[in-house]
Amino acid sequence: MKIYDIHDAEGRVFAFEVKNFGRSRVAKFVSSIPGAKVTREPMVLSSFREDEFCEFTVNGQLFVAWEPYGDNSRYWIGPRPPKWCEEVLLVRHAFAGHKPGLFSIFD
Fold it and tell me: Where are the beta strands (DSSP E) in the chain?
């Protein structure tokens, strides 16, 4: 999967964006990352009700997935509060290796 890195003032990746491939799919994929635990999944009709649609933890670090502006071609994924941490690289690596399904309209 194509990753769009977001860097802090020191040049470290502290968050990233991925192509919009479905809110529920993001939550399902996150649950497959070793050490990740989804703590909040998208609500019904999430795209109409919430920008932040998924929360999860990795090694105790809280992460959030959200869709800036409520209708975007990308999802922002990073820690809360936004800051550099080692876990960002673990999550980023998992997304970078993800291959969305052959028949997904979002691929």
Answer: 3-7, 13-19, 36-40, 52-58, 61-66, 74-79
Residue-range domain boundaries for the chain: 3-96
The whole model's pTM is what? 0.83
Strands of the sheet containing 74-79, edge to edge, are: 3-7, 13-19, 74-79, 61-66, 52-58, 36-40
Distance CA 84, CA 59 (A): 14
74, 20 Cβ separation under 8 angstroms: yes
Whole-angstrom distance between the N-terminal and C-terminal Cα of the chain?
Answer: 9
Task: Compute the distance between CA of residue 90 and CA of residue 30 in angstroms, rounded to an integer.
Answer: 11
CA distance 12 to 23: 26
pLDDT tens string 46-86:
555 667 789 999 999 999 998 887 667 899 999 999 999 99
